[in-house]
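User: I'm new to structure prediction. If I give you an amino acid sequence, what do you actually give back? Let's try with this one:
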Amino acid sequence: SASGLSAFAANWFSGGSLEWTSGANTGSVMEIKHHALNGETANIELWRSMASPITAGDGFIITAGCDKTFSTCKAKFANGLNFRGFPHIPGNSYLMATPSPGDANNNGGSFTQ
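Assistant: Good question. You get back a string of structure tokens that encode the predicted 3D arrangement of the chain. For your 113 residues, that looks like this:
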């Protein structure tokens, strides 16, 4: 549990990282499994236990999580222009689809969903 993170929405830090800057775990970095809010307190669940016990007052730097999707890059980080993926390429199910007799989309035009 941590204070001072209530300005961030739940799951903002899920998938991010937490680096310890003071305490017994100084220098250690761990990926964040889940971030939830309980009033003014943020509950941070790590993927693994730290090597040493976490105590009150231990300092850390927390980094927002990213699920590597275009929608997250655009909405959460306002960084859609720098997204380095291919968000508009059709998925495998579309590529493997075959035309059906009598289907309205078999007119030679562009496919719209």
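You can read the tokens as a compact description of the fold. Here is one thing that stands out. The mean pLDDT is 88.
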